[in-house]
Fold these 4 entries.
Entry 1:
Amino acid sequence: MRWMEELKNKLRHVRGRDGFDVELEEEMRTHVEMRADELEAEGLAREAAVRRARSEFGSVARLQEETRDAWRVRWVEDLVSDLRYAGRAMAKSPGYALAAVFSLALGTGANTAMFSLTSEFLFSEPSVEDARSLAVLRVGGASHSPQREYRFLKDAKLYEDLAGMREEGGVNWRQGDETFRLNGFRVTGNFFAVTGTPVWLGRGIAAGEKDTVVLHYSFWRTRLGGREDIVGRTLVLDGRPFRVAGVLPEGHRTLVGFGFTPDLYLPVTDEREVVKMIARLPAGMNRGQALERLQAAGAELDRVFPPAGGVPRKSGMSVEGVRSTDRVSSRKLLPVAMFFGMLMVVSALVLLVACVNAASLSLARAESRRQELSIRIAMGASRSRVVRQMLAESMALAAVGTACGLALNTALARWASGLALPLPVPVRLDIHPDWRLFGYAALVAAGSALVSGWIPALAATRGDVQPGLKQGERNVGSGRRRTRSVLVAAQLAATTVLLSAALLFLRNLGQASSTDPGFDVAQTTWATMRLVPERYDSTEQRVAAAGQALERVRGIPGVESAALAGVVPLNDSTTIATGMKTDLNPQEKQVRSQINRVSPDYFRTMGIPLLAGRDFTAADREGATEVVIVNENLAARLFGRQSPVGHTFGWEFAGGKTVLQVVGVAKNSKYFTLGEENTAAFYTPWLQSRERGTMLHVLVRSGRPAEGLGRDIRGALLGLDGSAAVEVRPMRTALALAFLPSRAGAWLLGSMGALGLLLAALGLYGVLAYAVSRRVREIGVRMAMGAGPWRVARLVFGQSFALVAAGTGAGMAVALLATQPLAMLLVPGVRPGDPVTYLAVGVLLALVAAAATAGPVWRALRVDPASALRQD
Amino acid sequence: MGKPEPITGEFLPGTLALLILKALERGPLHGYGIAKKVKDASGEALAIEEGSLYPALNRLLVKGWVRAEWGISDNNRRARFYELTKEGRRRLAEESREFERLVTAIRLVLRTV
């Protein structure tokens, strides 16, 4: 880079500039003297020699100036003087500067906030050493493998090392007399060493340790008071003491990403736990080669541990990266990536509106500064110099605006980081300003300076300087007026797109809230009870505990009914997709269905009507005929119009088959999302299920107010086992997850839309008010000539509405196309192309325009024709 | 003596820099020494305005093609001595070639009828 080299030389020079002038003078003097000496030696008299030498040398003053020029860092010095000038100009019209800074601050604040959110949610890197050489292994299509398979592959030494992690796990923490359910990552002893996860206080979990934990910074900070002497102390988890080995640093990010934040890491102790395998690849090995090695080991693995269903594991093997880009490129994340893409587009639109705002402000100001600019050009400033000057002004504005925006962003981020999201998984977004944000903000500032400064600067310096020089010349710049109208129309178009998207999500929220989930949420309460696994080792103990829990809850006064369920709808789901046969039709049918295992009284408790047959009873237990209740959709798919009650259906699996007898048909409801349609589902009796977890979901139906009822349920369950972690929530609160996508969307886009509307309203108001103020004289003439106030009002209103119509028309055309991909984020009743949305947007903008025009019109009408005519 | 009329003013842009580089090829010189060398070598046909040497020298300093240091001249005066840097030497060769090419091209144009 030659110019860098030169700049370095120049900067070195700038430091000693005073000395330089003295030296240059001395050097030139010596030169002249040397020449004079020589001429003297040739025979000239000293005086004549000196005179001749001087004339040969040329003008010392001019040459010194030229020499200094060689060293000047020209553009920097120009910029400094431009900025100084800009500062003075702005101090002269603080209203304009304030309005522009305010616009830009809101625009950049919103924009950089969305950038922080997106980059943290999607692109935060896991806190590990060299994420590039870490990979997640999948064997037999499963994300998690039994520990014996993990040990087998680890001992096979396929890679540098292999660690295991189970990232969804509850842990009961006993503190004083209370038990809390925490979220813990269970990891193999070598996890910290293999991944190189940095620990802030103390150390990580070491190989072979079974009773140490590593705490997350925010857990340590908020739940343990952030005490420094925590290392070596003991926490009682799942009824056993664990020693705190260390605390993670504040900015710890898990391998899972997406802000997933556990309270602590603890060792895997239960042999039944499955783990996700994380491999450290040797230097130089890529993921393709890693997969080949894994597949080569597949046959041996199948021989030692025959696979379920006889399907060789090799068919379902994969090796995936752990970096953010690997996560985001996964196809499952398409809707999420789309949503964030939309957010970025929307916030870019907000910024654009803000820039256009600043641009039209500075255009209006350029017009009133026309005389000043004309004088500068007449005095010999080149057009490019004046344009640069005006760009320096918008740069200064953009810099101040962006700085304010960043302050706004930081405040927003702090607020958002403290926000607890209503999710069953612990998600916390740790948003801190970092170099990415500052780099992005600098780009935003430069971009907005260009966008908001370029057009006004070119427009203001266009054309002849003559008319501008004449004081009071009024009929200049119909072209500039056009430029400004185009700007406002563009701004309106951007706002229209914004508002369309925002309204779409607001309607989505409304629609989602009014969607009937198919079960009652008003009088149901959901209690979870997590039992410590070690205390309930056998299936019998677990079944007994569940039965007792149900009995105790049913005994609470005011409880109409209570039931157990495997999963609670709209929060979690279990699905099966397989070929099913019925006793009426030997033809196999591919069916995807939701499954839930429920106790008797589930349907009564949830308020789901049984349309035919009966509910489960206590007799539907292990050993009795396996029975099932299907929903209408599944009944129709398997049995057509026939009543399924009394018939059977079933499917085959590796090493056996399941046949279930239908005893009832339940009304359709929503199972996993509010947006789903025509979902098939069936229920099996809780007592006939093979699965016996230690997490109990107890559903309660009662007309009692939530607070007292919750306390009673909690007391009843803790009375059964004080070491269990119990949480009780009204069903309405628990449904928050189902509303989260539409709620977050409505919130974010709604606020962006409101911001865009506010900015566009400001811009519209400013431009119209300015246009009217420039036409005071014209209005005066019209009124003097006999035009009534109505005609004047019609004139001004007509102009605003023409602008609004052009702007919104163009915006709607863009919005119609741009919002199409949003369909996948919306509930069925709301479609992107819905005319209602556009009608609402049009009406809204027209109202804003009317409000923005009313003020100027009011002022225009009060103009006294005589004084208007006298105005310069 | 029938001396030819000296060439003054702007001849070809960049030539002054080339002449300075050439003058410094054999070792460091002070400003006056450079001016003298250029004049002598050209048989006084190139009478540059002596002072214009300094802006040109300083531009070369900025580019890093020459460096300067204070020293004592033959007749015991304090003077700034200029010296080619490695980069300057490389540029001299390069610029000379460029100049040759240009002159050849001009000559070709002039000869064309």
Entry 2:
Amino acid sequence: MLDQIKLETTNPGATSTALLPGTMTPANPKITARNVSVFYEQKQALFDVDLDVMPNEVLSLIGPSGCGKSSLLRCFNRMNDTIDVCRVTGNITLDGQDIYDRSIDVVELRARVGMVFQKPNPFPKSIFENVAYGPRIHGMTKDRDELEELVVSSLKRAGLFDEVADRLQDSGTSLSGGQQQRLCIARAIATRPEILLMDEPASALDPIATSIIEELIDELRQNYAIVIVTHSMQQAARVSQKTAFFHMGKLIEKGETEQIFTNPVDAKTQDYITGRIG
Amino acid sequence: MTDFFDSPANKSSLHTGMEARERLRARYRAEWMFKALGLGAIGVSVGFLLFLFTTIFMQGWPAFTHNFVALPLELNAQTLGDEGVISEESLSGADYDAIVRTAIREQFPEVSGRTAKRTLSGLISPGAPVLLREALLADPERRNAPNAITLPLSDFADLYLKGQISRSTYRTGEGELAIEVSETGVLISGADLAAGLESSGADGKISLSREMPSLLLYAGGGVFKLETLEGNLATARILSPLDAGETTKALDWQVRLIEVPEANRKFSDREIVWTDKLVERQLVQAKFNTLFFTRGASREPEMAGILGAVVGTALTLVVTLGLSFPLGVAAAVYLEEFAPRNRLTALVEVNINNLAAVPSIVFGLLGLAVFLTFFGMPRSAPLVGGMVLALMTLPTIIIASRAALRAVPPSIREAALGIGASKMQVVVHHVLPLAMPGILTGTIIGMAQALGETAPLLMIGMVAFVVDIPGGFTDPATVLPVQIFMWADFPEPAFQQRTSAAIMVLLAFLVVMNALAVVLRKQFERRW
Amino acid sequence: MPKTPSPHIVQSYEDELAELVRLISEMGGMVELAIVNSTMALVRVDHELARQVAGDDKKVDDLQRLIDEKAVSMIARRQPMAADLRRIVASIHVATDLERIGDMAKNISRRTLRMSDKRMAAQLYSGVKHMSEMVLGQINKALDTVTSNDVEACARIVKADDEVDALYMSLFREFLTYMMEDPRNITDCTHLLFCAKNLERAGDHATNIAEAAYYVQTGGNLPADLEAGLIELS
């Protein structure tokens, strides 16, 4: 137990690794979801999900296609609002504040909760403009120098700066797939969010680019809470501290990644991650 | 299922056997047929297009040049001045008709008689005095070089010089001719002038009427129109007198056969001879027809130009573009990005699509009923025409813009939303710029449609005969297609040429517009 | 979790896992035979049989290497998760344990060859023989747990190891007494004692196998209390 305490103080990212799955953690969760259900017209896509996202931790959401994991992810920054027929019930809080409350402005929320999408989707503008767009629309910088500094530091943070330092005015779409995805990450972190949502960020990338992104996720964990949806069991196992398994819109199991991938409690989880006919 | 795949029968020959070869051949045959059909379709349409263009080009091309005559005009204080003093006022009030008339008559002093003189004056365009006045008012100094001022020939003289009145064949005669001019007529003897002429009468006497091809004899510096022929004897009428005396003997003579009978043309033998004389004296020059591009409508073909119609078109299109582009794009953006999906918007959508299919004349009726009758706006005005055409173009622009907006990948919208851009920012910063090439294409297609539209404009009176170049949006004006429509109705052959020429100009406008669309699109695409 | 899991979607993966279990069983059979034969050679002073046992150990080693290779290749190619991962990792452990048991049998055979031809008191042999049977039973039951999913059986095996240990202690005292009676017996008795010790070690490995089987089934370790014999099984 003494080791554990020492570990906690030296490595803030591992605060809860020793805690048993499913129990409440002492640190304050960044996001809490309670009884969250998502409906598309009459069809219910997500059933009463309870989930916490802890600071400085990567939570991966896994499950077969159409299990509702992306729907949940998109609840966290209210991207579901853009879909007319989508309805969300239940309670989601960010730092204790209900994000579906009237007092919360969705634009502000999305600045606080960044998102990286499955397909790299840089704007068809220059690399610089891509990263500068967020800070610009939020009026985060006072002058050009400050903006440039923010762009450069975001690109550095995303591990892309060295590769594009001499061609910041080139189009963002001229980069390779992996670079584009890192550009998207740089763009997302340029608005200084508190949480990063990633929807299968490496599904379209080659293994090297994937590794770079995964390393990046691990580094970003120092400053952000990260929620990542992935179809790759290995990726979830590699990058995340917590894992939640969804099936048919229900949260089947959540817990330490290590435990989920070596000794899942639920048979459905077991079948899914070992590739059995469930 | 497993049975089907596991059956070993003919497995090796399944895709290589004779039957398979035959199937493959049939497939290639079908493919070849399909390609051939496609190529054929393209060939047919290209053929029709080429035929159309060639016809228009062949017909319209001569209209771009016109024959002008440089007469030694009497431009002096006597003719131009007011009691011998030339002033701006006197220049503007001078009798240019008389000046031109005198100048042409001086060329042919032998012409006498009122009818003949009038016919002679008719060789020069009735618009010539107007042009002369304009030229002198613009630069009074030009009166010092009267030979440098060229005046347009009349439309028929011009057509004759372009070889469009009739074909002529010449025969050089042999032997000596005796020509005797007397009170009753001209008697010619010495050679069989009818040689080679097919229709000879039963008794060997040929009487040449106005319904028969004309035979002109060129001899001794004079021109004679043959009237009767009988062996070596012929009677004739003088078209142009002999150089000297009343009788002469000529060794060099020519007979000219003009195939179209005089009765079937609007350009008599006499006029032909006079025109030839003018050419002989090197007074006539074919020049680029600037009048066609610098003048408005006119009843005289040689004076009729498209400038009025072009300006009217430009003004109309400016109104159309100014109204339909912002309205159309705004409507498309609202419907595509902001409008909730419900019955009302569905209804609006259906109606927009229906509107695109409404016959254009209906828009004309609407314009007549609403803009003219209800709001009392001016008739024949580009403003009203533009508004009507804008109504007609709106659905096209809305539909094209919506398609362009829908083609913008949703990932771009998500990316911007994910950063925290507001809906408006997403549209203005990302979606609209990306959709712009498509929107512009749609707009230009709509504009091209509007450019070629006639029917709705007829309803609001833009078919009026407007001589003046419109100077503003509320001046009476006409547009190119309506001008073409009107010219096509005029009987003069020179107007037929101008119709084709105007069509060529219209086509050129369309090509330029499309090129502009392509250039704009390329420009945008390069930037993004 | 005594539920039979549903089969894998990828049939060849399923086949490979089954093959791994089969190889473990095969190896278990060989090892069991080696223990039986080595004990028999010891008791009957049958040098021929002893040599055969010592020689056959090579096959066990080969089989262990084969299982290792298969397990490693499956980890590399299939990226096993959860229960599959545990089974494959446990297979490596079990194979190692079985190989060690094989080594024990070989050791016994070698000692048999080194001992004098003279037979000792029958009661000494009977003790070793009894112990051999007991260990054999342990190994047998442990191998059963590898395939059966019986969590309680695992615990019983671990518990039963105490009896083997107790038997070894009594044999130890017996040999000690015997050696004190006649110092000339010391050499052979020591050899026999080591043989008994080898059997006891084999029993320990059987426990390890049972523990591995328990890990495969539950993903956890046997409760430490149970291992220490502090709690009784129902």
Entry 3:
Amino acid sequence: MSLIEVEDLRVTFPKAGVEAVRGVSLSIAEGECVAIVGESGSGKSVTARTLVGLTGQGATVTASRFDVRGRDARRFGPRDWRRLRGRFAGLVLQDALVSLDPLRTVGAEIAEVLAAHDVVPRAGRTEKVLELLDAVGVPEPELRAAQYPHQLSGGLRQRALIASAIAADPPLLIADEPTTALDVTVQAQILRLLAARRAEGTALLMISHDLAVVSSIADRVLVMKDGVVVEEGPTNRVLSAPERDYTRLLLAAVPSAASRGTRLSAIATGGVSLRAPLPERRIDHGSPVVEARGLTAEYGRRRVVDDVSFEVHPGETVGIVGESGSGKTTVARLVMGLMKPVAGQVWLDGSPWSGLPERERRPRRSVIQVISQNPLDSFDPRYTVGRLVAEPLGGPWKSRAARVAELLERVGLPADLAGRHPRGLSGGQRQRVAIARALAPRPRVLVCDEPVSALDVSVQAQVLDLLGEIQAADGTALIFISHDLGVVHHISDRVVVMREGRVVEDGHVDEVFFLPKHEYTKELLGAVPKLATTL
Amino acid sequence: MTVSDREPASERSDREPAVAVPPARLAADDEPGLDPVPAVPPAAPRTVPRRYGVRPGQVVALLFLAVIAVAALAPGLLSGADPLAADPLHALAPPSAQHWFGTDHLGRDVLSRVVHGAGYSLGIGAAAILFAAVLGTVLGALAGLSPRYVDEPLSRLFDVLASFPELLLAMLVISVTGPGAGNVILAIGLVQLPNYARVIRGQTFVVRRSGYVEQAVTLGLRRPTLVVRHVLPNILGPLPVLATIGMGTAIIATSGLSFLGMGPQPPDPEWGSMLAEARNYLRVAWWSVLFPGLFVTLTVVSLTAVGRRLQRRFEGRLP
């Protein structure tokens, strides 16, 4: 018997005027792993929540069939749902720090599930909590059970959350983006843990935007877009021989070693997707435009960057990869001259840069520009798009209009966007505005700090393509900081691998990623879920 | 605020890597040319976000303040009688068709005095707030932008000013400067100064560490340009709210000081001094006390109501 059987599920939010889910059919058999993939707004999370009666207030849910373990869930009241949650289906959400009560210890959180469903008698609860923490691979369970969520690392928190989700031993686990906020090595551990639960017979419904994560664990995949299932089938079939153009585009948009030198936003026609080549780039191997020698930086007494050296030539892309806390962003700030190194130097265009007083640096600021992860943060909240892009241009405000239109066109935005506020734009459009502004002073170096991390894969593809075009046309050098090894492999010529403020390995991107020498690089690469696809 | 600013519920529950990607995709971008294979019906148009109704009390408060403002600016429109004309024959006359609010112990028309008094209360309150807000903003921004050795003494100064009970500090100032409208403005302004200075200093800290100020540095803006263009405009947001609510406090303080004889001197029809003069006749002529007191109270309550509304709007709880 299937655990869940849903047909023609529709979820609307009448007040917001949104039809989030429009006719989804889904069944999950015992012990099966089903994945729903899709971009933001595709309705995948709403679908998952509806399955456990957590659609939220103001939602209208209809279905021609909605059976939970053979019982018609359309008649369920709040009490019926409460009994199901935890007992029948455990829920694991993206950010455990939000999902766990900050004022209660991890142990108390798990014990509550045990109490609510009367899993074990009161006397045995403490022991059961420790047993559960041990089962999800939390070292020193006694210590951890007594700690609060903020005292745990992201990985441990996610494990604790999984422990509370499986406390009542439910036959189904629903994981909504369970690894999205985690570093790649931690992600690999959590995925192993989920796979282990599956091996023990727990069914898994996994929600993700990441096709590679899904491919490593799911039996079946549903691809959702705009509230509709676009394609569904066995994971291997869907990922290696997709039938729908949307799936094909989604797969083609994933950056990797294979996609180097090509456009990610492919044209899908007649069942084949073609990645068009990007325009040729010329790298000038003469003198480097940015040269960092022995960079060292500290916050208080803590050394966050330790003896980092690299150089970037005109037209070249240097990737900097590492997990959170490895010092990547600090390197970007040092290169931008926003922070003074305690030792070492950055040379820009062959002359000193990082050690100068700001007054001397100012006239040369136009040479190097930055694009950050969250463009909205870097926009003055009062400014319109036009004003943001016009600010770096010299001359009277009025005469800059023509150049603004030109820059917007260059990044693929309509010129009439100039009067709009960035808040009303999509994430991809905002990042384009940030790029247009960075291009305004005609820089020779662009520092990109996680520029595509907050974007959906198809939007990421467009932004990466745009950067490639700009580089080819202007010969701009790129310093590309990312935690995503696929993105870095796609875009970089050379790569610097950082760990705890130090460079552990650097070299040509193919050399480093295909023949890693350092243990850490190997570990990092080993942890990346691979997308088994022919595209 | 546009429609696209508001995320539909489906997006909010979608736990994507938080930050951006709002739903309102605007044509041309982000949408790869797709196959029409799955019959996707067009999504329903988003309805305009619900406007929150203004509460009736807030409308009444605003209307009342409008009347008070007219009284302050053009008292002649509301009352023809001379507020200073004594008429001992008709002293302490109860409210009647001729004297709506009755007369006081010298036979002066209470309505006329209340109307003419609005100018004193509102004028002194507004002047004091203007003084506090301008000086507070300048000092607060200076503290927020300066290195520690400037910020520290300034902040301690704000702390000291704020540590005195308000009325006590105001009386202290007046006992040094002497009574009078100008000195009341100075006293109340000084008392209110730390409220503004502290908030502005805090705002300045937030703004100067913000991504867009850092971005402005990378664009090579000179510091004065940067401060004028990006810092100052962005720290002034809370001022209207603070000023509106502070105005109420200032009016109470003005009346209080006048009541104690430290404000405008009799026979000027200031509400507080009217109360002081009339309090001896409370048992025989309640109207000479009630109306000035009522107007102080209603003005302050109205200002607070309007201020709260502004505050909710500023904090983004209202569109």
Entry 4:
Amino acid sequence: MLLNIENLRKSYGTPDGSVQPVVDVASFSIESGQQTALCGTSGTGKTTFLNLIAGILQPDDGLIELDGRPISGISEAGRDRLRARTIGYIFQTFNLLQGYSCVENVLLGMSFGPGADRSRASELLERVGLGQRLDHLPRQLSTGQQQRVAVARALANRPKLVLADEPTGNLDPAAAAESLGLIRETCRENGAALLLVSHDRGVLGQFDPVRDLAEINRAAAWPSGKEVQP
Amino acid sequence: MSLLQIVLRSLRQHMLSTVITAFSIALASGLLMSVWVVKDQARENFTGVDSGFDGVFGARGSKLQLVLNSIFHLEASPGNLSWEQYERIAADRRVATAVPIAVGDNYKGYRLVGVTTNLFGIEYRAGKKYAVRDGYLFNPERKQAVVGSFAAERLRLKVGDTFHPYHGLIFDENQQHAETYVVSGIMEPSNTPSDRVIWIPIAGLQNMAGHNPETATDVSAVLVKLRGSSSGMMMNQEFNLQGNVMTFAWPIADTLSKLFNKIAPVEMVLRAVALLVALVAAGSILASIYNSMNERRREIAILRALGARRSTIFAVVVLEAGGIAALGAVAGFGVYFVIMSVAAWLIRQETGIVLNPLELEPVMFWAPLAMLVLGALAGVVPAAKAYRTDVAENLTPIS
């Protein structure tokens, strides 16, 4: 089992002093190489859930095991290291660094992991169809092309797990379908499992099975229906 | 990408603020070095001036005025000594050489000094005597002049030129003397105050038309080279402590040290101002980077999401501040050189003392290093802000 989650809980304090549960997942797992989609509408805690798995957030309680190693109890620096080496993250807003070229964005992804490898960065960008645009800045690319750079960056460190948070949310339907295909193919080629969350039925329709985050996350049924920022 | 590449890229991305902030550091570093070097070299060169003499005799009065007048050719003479007094000094067995000088005239602001030719036999520095570069030494019987190298350059005088001296030490075109002097020679540069002087025979200056005939044989001062330092102590006792006719300024360096000790508080203020400028410059690094932190929160969050540790982000910001300080410290040498070139020119013009901007001084090592450390320290505050950046909050909108 690649990812194993048990009794995971995360809450935020609210301005009125009460505590707002955001994630409350009794059990969730992914096998190596598996591609899983989570259906999550706004307010079901999907970004918080992915950030907990990525080690960006520390859970209040529960267990997260990645590749047999518990990550919920280790130090922040340890989680940073683990994230850099084991997890690739594709964001809805791509989160490319605007001052860096395509190849530099991919190299940056490698810098905090096993180390920058220019030939692999170029190879990945060629694989996603940007071989001719290595030195372009993100603002010189279309939205779909920026998404492809984000995919290349997520795969740069040969992660075991790729997290994709609404990866097609900013793309038109044609570009979304193409991008999704690319994400799935490249994950498969690199032996990485994929955990994708989306509320787009067109995207979710390509996965089997699709799990509903509202069913997994007991906190999603909280009356406010919204996550609260700390 | 290495940490250094990330830092360099960030500096390039914020080019304008990097350049402006580095420039303020350069000004501070250059100012620090200039203040220290001018102060140290001026003190060293004034107190250790190469005159070739141990002491100066003059009329009863201020030793400092006597030294400034006769060695540095600044200030007015405190009074005159008679020719007989000069002869008594010259005949003293404790005196190896005595050179009488007379002042009171100028040519376009450059002072004429009447002197006997034995001045030119004195070693003003070990193995160095005043030498004529072009032409020949003046004939004591004729109205001839040898011109110091700096004065010749400024006055555009060459061998064979003629000029009329002007009365007084300050140039006044209505005070022209009738006598015509011929430039017989131009001196080799000595890098001493003598480079700013026009030397003429002492009799010529004493007997210049319009001078008081009653004082025609008086001298302004007598420069002496002694036979051993015990002679100086004995003569100090005899002329300064027991006598009341003449003043004996000895040793020359001690007299000038007292001047520098008197102006020490002014030097301290200058140094304090330079240090304050350095602190303000470091503050500009802090302000510049700190203000950019808000717009960089997302960038920091992305780097963290990619696996960068908090300590890495902290190091990037501190290195960025250090990088700006390093750029400024390097450019500071350019600022230093410009300030020093102007200062050295002015000081040479006014005093004849030569400062050397290229001479290595300790401040040239510690000032840039101090700016580097200050700059890096200034980066700690914005680095702490970057360190605390919440990744999840700044990465992407929560769904």
